[in-house]
Amino acid sequence: MARSLSSTPKGDQPRIPMPTADPTLNLTPSTWKVLTDSIFPSAKTAEGILLAVHYCAARNLDIMKRPVHVVPMYSKAQGREIETVWPGIAELQTTAARTGQWAGIDPPRFGPIEERTFRGRLKRDGTWQDLESTVAFPEWCEVTVYRLVGGERCAFTEPVFWLEAYARFGGAYSELPADMWLKRPRGQLMKCAKAASLRAAFPEEATYTAEEMEGRVIEADAGVTGPNPPASHRSSPSAGPSAAAPTAPVATTPPSADSNAQADAAATATASASMALDPAMQDRIDRVIARAGENAAWPQAEQYLRERCTGAALDYALTTLSQAQTETASRQAA
């Protein structure tokens, strides 16, 4: 028989006092101590841990295997940090496997290594400190997940870019990477790439993971914030071939007939190439280019597309990328 909490020796008391919980959860004092001290050692509130317990009970998950994480997030509506619960990558894989349609996963593929120095000013122990961190990270990662669709093994791949995905130390307005992203820049990005592809393959089952939500801000009216701001506004790239290329010069005089003809030709080439493409491939290329525009990562996107595309797909990708880069430069100069 489990001892009551009141009779537990002081040295055996849990880190967070055990609250009154739903009897159907079958929480005992000893189980609660394990949850507070071992499973969720960084959780600050009983409410956060109870939320994780309820999540696992609803999903029929063994909480002792740590399938979910308590993630602190700043709430703009409440003006303070609150604790939320998000699944880990293992829980997404478990959920996919339970469908009976998961047909395997490929090893991760990483982009070239880039090194950058991130700087920020954070408050520690009541005083503001200027901090600096240098990290070498892969520019992107992708993992292919397979699902049986109509009896056929179909591949789902979603590339994820490090500068978009990394968690920031100090919240949405800091550029400093969180500790785990400094220690495991490849491993954390791989988890995010797995999660993105699992969501593409199992949209009705998979959700965002703790690795993806760490460091995000809950907006007052619009839910959770989206990707990090463009890297050009957050960090100072180190010198070398990985640094972002300067924006192409834009003419200040009205376009000539020749330039209009070139634009028309480029649009025609893009349209012709897209007609020969599989819609899924075209959509994937368009997403990569859109992300490149958001982060001024044109050289990285071009390298990625050259490595992954051939034939008509490569023609479409390079033409569309060039057109998007020109349009972005024009908007910035306007």
Automatic annotation (TrEMBL):
Pfam families: RecT (PF03837). InterPro entries: RecT_fam. One of its GO terms (biological process) is DNA metabolic process. Residues 1-10 have a biased composition (Polar residues). It comes from the Bacteria. Residues 231-263 have a biased composition (Low complexity). GO terms for molecular function: DNA binding. Residues 1-23, 221-263 are annotated as: Disordered. This is Recombinase. It comes from Lamprobacter modestohalophilus.
